[in-house]
Write a structure and sequence with these properties.
elongated, four-stranded antiparallel beta sheet, mainly beta
Length: about 525
Amino acid sequence: SASSGADLPSPSQQKSIASSPFAEFRSVLCMLPLRELEMLATASMNSLVTLWDAPSGRRKRVLEGHTKGITRLGYSSESRFLISGGFDFDIIVWNPYVDGYILRLPGHQATICSVVLVPETPQLVTADVSGVVKVWDVRNFGCVQTINVDGEQGVSRVVVDFTAKKRLLAAGRSIHVYEYQHVDNPDLTDDTPVAAAVYNATTNTIMTASSHHVRIWDVTTGALSRICRNLGEATSELTCLVLDAGERKFIIGDHAGAVRSINFMNGEELQFFTRRKTRRRAPPHKDDESEEEAEEESESSDLSSCCGEKGGGLSSFKDAADDEGDDPAHAKEVSAMVYVKEHGVIVTASWDGSVCVFDDVEETELMLLRVMTGAHEGDVTCLAYSANLSLVTSGSSDGVVAVWNFEFGSLEGTCDQHHGSITAVNFLDPYPALLAADSNGTFHLWATPPSDKAFQCLAAWQAFGPFSGGPPPPPSQQKRGGGGENYASGAVVCFVVVPAPTELKEEEEEDGDSSSSSSSDEDETSRAALGGGVT
């Protein structure tokens, strides 16, 4: 019909196709309209795929590659791939604009009976008459799953149903139904724990990271839009997820310490961040090897000098520069990540006790800018960045909150009055203060540079009950992770700092104009805490 895409040939044009000297003289087994290209693809027993111009009815191209008759055709409008299968057991991928095929997909041992592109996913489903069904990832054309349909009668057709329930139906003498996305508990977001969730304002979607995949949800309807599967290594589950400044790609960290950037639209890996200074996707030319080695040696020396004398440095990765391979960004699990939109860099923290800063460049060369170590004896558990103060803060399982100079990577100081693992930290911009929560349900409000009360505890309170007894004793006098009688047993997992209402800010400004300008930093941060709130 006219509403379904390209206009079909007129009766006279249809007659011209049938009587054309290029018409198929052997049995045509399947036809497929390529509406976006205004073409018609036909396949027949002569082992050829023929592309016809729909408006004129003329033959445009003949694709040769099969050795026997072709039974099924499929087309991906997103990737512009034409896919065929037939009696020679082969699945062949074509570019409609090129005469030769792109590649063959081996694995079937019987005649191909179905070729299905799953809508809104990068997946291809193929099946043969012996009952073998294969699922392929069209981004790299790797086989991600093989299903052997039960029964001795084989399969004559496979259908993927996305109308009501997402199911795969294999039909022969009997019909076998497989759930396309099996969820043990449909009331949950995922069958495995959700490690991270972020909101993409550009696409109005929510992204959740779990196990080895990222699910993308439509905020308006709450429906699952698509799934980016098999991200990272098969042995390492995802632990962190952040979006870049343009929200067109996302960065993931995993249990093995690897950090990768992924294309938001198709789930393809774009970059792999390594502890080495640089990493090139393509090997250099022989003539450029000596020049590149000299350049990397020069850059490595510059990196060591820019990390600062206090805390930062490359000592923990001293062998990284000599490593021939692509080592991950961290030696242990990536526990926290922050994307600094103002500078286009990624700040990562790990259980190895280090904080790294990477330059999120679009080229083939990836830059490790700084490595900050020396403040934490335990695992780094959380991270925050202040654009106003140009500071980075990290909390760890040993109850220490460290404050770093973002520009130089130096350690400014530590806050060590927590008696439990630090679970969440956040700056109270624009005030020189940060808020930290621990596993015993206690909040501490700390002053930060440039305040003259930097690294002093300004206030402390209990999250889930009355707080008494003053500030908690230092970690050296408390058992790690242990609780006291004055502290609640519930741990603070995360919190959000709510800004003060506009009316209150205006009143504070008016009061500040009428009063002396010698108010203390403690009063100022107290107004910040009282003016807004913590959730």
